[in-house]
Amino acid sequence: LRWGFDRVMVRVVLMNVVALSVFCSAVVLSDGFGLYVFNTQYREDLKRLSPSPAAYTYPYICQNRHLSDLELRSKGCIINSYREPSVLLWGDSNAAHYVGVMGAFAEASGFAFRNAAHSSCPPLLEGAAATQRSDNVANCLASLAVVSQYLDNYSTVALGAAWADYADKSESFFRDLEATIDILVDQGKEVIILAQVPNFQTVNRKCQQKALKLPRLSCEDSGPEDPRVAKNNTRLLQLVARRDNVHYFDPRGQLCPDERCSAYFNGQLAYFNTTHLNMPGSWAIGRQIIREQGVP
Length: 296
Description:
By secondary structure, the chain is α/β, with parallel strands linked by helices.
């Protein structure tokens, strides 16, 4: 019995199509797990290692593109108390990702704070417009106006922001920041400048999940850090050194042991993306600092 070439090819193609269809159906029906659907430990580990969401998705993080009175009045924006605190954590998303660190400090020492963050907008009392794209100027200035109305409620203000990014956008940024700090100090406030955390070229958020199948996969190497961040943090430190009642906090010692920075902390992913901590990482860093040296 002899079959023609075309008939053989039809059979081969049909068999491959059937096999592929069966395989795809199995993957779909197993919710993407394939043969691992029968491995309970793998599924539990995969869930445990799922990347954490952005900070602003947590109910106690009060970050918005356009802040309103709600964020400055809501008890849901207060960490470690139901009463209005004397401490305000203020800035952009880089302030928001410090909520865990400061929350750990608050729990350990008994103080409370309110957090208010306006996306992509620095905590400045003047000059902020120069740091903004045209489509965000109105939201930024409106948010700053709201916060400024409530500053009298606080004796301590912690400022966090993507300092290096704003410095690139505005030549007057550091002068405007100094002016803001001086205004706050003249009002009798203590001011805390929160360093910008190391920024990386890449952060593979699902690396630990992939490593379940590829044990030799290295996840903690995040590549070189953005040199602008350390440079501008040094400038912030110099700014603080020239002033009374102004303080500086930098978790670099935890994120960069032996000056090797990583998006991982104690073996766990501590970053949401290349520039922001995730909330579990933020809380873990704060608690580690307390164990090692107490509340700063």
